[in-house]
Design brief:
The chain is α/β, with parallel strands linked by helices. Helix content is 48%, strand content 17%. The chain has one domain (5-227): P-loop containing nucleotide triphosphate hydrolases (Rossmann fold). The protein contains nine helices and eight strands. A hairpin with a 4-residue loop joins strand 3 and strand 4 (79-84). The structure holds 2'-deoxycytidine-5'-monophosphate. 2'-deoxycytidine-5'-monophosphate binds next to helix 2, helix 4 and helix 8.
């Protein structure tokens, strides 16, 4: 049975990563969360004061070769975690501050170029599930299976709000909804590789669909593509 490449794209908080992780586990494939890579570059830029109160995108671009990103498996958690220049930043990259600036950093062509190259390298032997915004359109336009996930902004903000509360962050639902809508706008209108459905992607609206049902359907699709 040959290994395939599975691309899962969609707006933020559509539950892409939950499905992608589960699918990778079930198929014994590698899972790559490309959003974590954009988030780690954003964290670097915030730490260096290249974005936020001051803005110095040029210095961020100059620093790109110095930004080392690695996914290192955490055996206890059964998942890989993001390391930025040798430091585990898995928790920090999920904070609201990073979420507020990541879409902006993701519009920088030089950042995208670096990360897309890394992603293509990770997927060169197939056997992986990668989630993001441009996986089916730019990173792996030849992926054998492409999924495009959507859900209403309210359904997504509710999920994200619960996640942040569980982590102990103090945020309001309105703030989260506003962030989700703002990111949707930036992600889908940016000039370089905007979020859009690849022509051959299968669309899933999961506003009212449970995780198990979605997983069953996507797993079934993957199995069919693999045996063919
Ligand atoms: O999937 P996420 O919400 O963690 O992604 C964070 C941001 O990174 C998102 O707002 C857009 C950007 N991103 C991107 O532009 N391209 C990708 N392949 C993945 C994420």
């Amino acid at each position: 049975m040959g290994k395939i490449t599975i691309a899962i794209d969609g707006y933020s908080s559509t539950g892409k990563s939950t499905i992608a992780k589960k699918l990778a586990n079930a198929l014994n494939y590698i899972y790559v969360d490309t959003g974590a890579m954009y988030r780690a570059v954003t964290l670097y830029a915030l730490n260096q004061n290249y974005i936020g109160e001051n803005e110095d995108i040029q210095s961020l671009i100059v620093d790109l070769p110095k930004i080392d990103l690695k996914f290192i498996p955490n055996q206890k958690l059964g998942m890989s975690e993001m390391y930025l220049n040798g430091e585990n930043v898995e928790r920090e990259i999920r904070a609201m501050q990073v979420s507020s600036f990541v879409s902006k950093v993701a519009t920088i062509p030089e950042v995208r170029h670096k990360l897309v190259e890394m992603q293509q390298q990770m997927g060169k032997d197939k056997g992986l599930v990668m989630d993001g915004r441009d996986i089916g359109t730019v990173v792996f336009p030849d992926a054998e299976l492409k999924i495009y996930m959507t859900a209403s902004p309210k359904a997504r903000a509710t999920r994200r709000y619960k996640e942040l509360l569980d982590r102990g962050e103090i945020v309001s639902y309105e703030e989260v909804l506003e962030n989700v809508q703002k990111r949707d706008f930036i992600d889908s209108t940016r000039e370089v590789s905007p979020l859009r459905k690849a022509e051959d992607a299968i669309e899933f609206d999961n506003s009212d669909m449970g995780l198990e049902e979605q997983f069953e359907r996507i797993y079934d699709l993957a199995q069919r593509v693999i045996v063919n």
